[in-house]
Amino acid sequence: MIELHRVSKVYSVGPVKVPALREVSFRVDKGEFVVLTGASGAGKTTLLRLLYRDDLPSEGDVEVLGYGLVAMRRSEVAPLRRSIGVVFQDAKLLPVRTVYENVAFVLRVLGTPRRDITARAFDALRMVGLSARAQAYPAQLSQGEAQRAALARAIVRRPPLLLADEPTGNLDEAMAAEIVDVLKDIGAGGTTIVLATHQARLAAGLRRRTLTLEGGRVVKDEG
Q: Less packed terminus of the chain by CB within 10 Å, N or C?
């Protein structure tokens, strides 16, 4: 499903070279729920960006869903990304569209037959417990509801892989627990999940395999 071999990433800031990842190697199997944890700046977001090919490593190999990301052709990038759901700390909902429209819009862009869009959008909203808020606009949602809507949008295509970058970072403890429960339910359905969080307590409470990043290196692989 995911395999990294001696992956490093260095950014150039003027004449200065700033290492973000250093010789990272690990494998994630189909159906696993893996937590990436570490302090801010440890390399979590950089690592996720490599997984959906928003960036390329400076050294090493990255394989995701059978694609070799370093050598892949440009024409292969879109099919890869269609197979990956991504959720960010900011829900990034379209403000002038309802919750339902935000979720359904993804399917429309992909050319899903109109007869299938409504059923699939409501399936995704039911999965995240948001059916009753389908006609609400983003400004009418709590932060927790907005993040659940973002999760529905990410899973409506039924991707085999879900990447979540600090999805509970802006939430209080109760709302964060709701999002974690939703992620567990999604994972129980067979979706492979990689969750990045700086919240050590949340990571420990998940009791899932946890990769700890420090200074761009994986210093622990537990669980």
A: C
In the CATH scheme, what architecture does the domain 1-83+159-223 have?
3-Layer(aba) Sandwich (3.40)
Q: Beta-carbon neighbour count of residue 50 at 10 Å? A: 24
Q: Are 36 and 194 in contact (CB under 8 A)?
A: yes
Among the listed residues 91, 62, 67, 37, the one whose alpha carbon sits nearest the alpha carbon of residue 214 = 37
Q: Which helix (H) or strand (E) holds 33?
A: strand 33-37
Other C-beta atoms closer than 10 Å to the C-beta of 201 total 10
Domain-wise residue ranges, the chain: 1-83+159-223, 92-158
If 0-12 CB within 10 Å is exposed, 13-18 middle and 19+ buried, where does residue 150 land?
buried
Q: What is the pLDDT tens value at each position of the chain, 223 positions in all?
A: 999 999 999 999 888 899 999 999 999 999 999 999 999 899 999 999 999 999 999 999 999 999 999 999 999 999 999 999 999 999 999 999 999 999 999 999 989 998 899 999 999 999 999 999 999 999 999 999 999 999 999 999 999 999 999 999 889 888 898 999 999 999 999 999 999 999 888 888 888 999 999 999 999 999 8
- pTM exceeding 0.70: yes
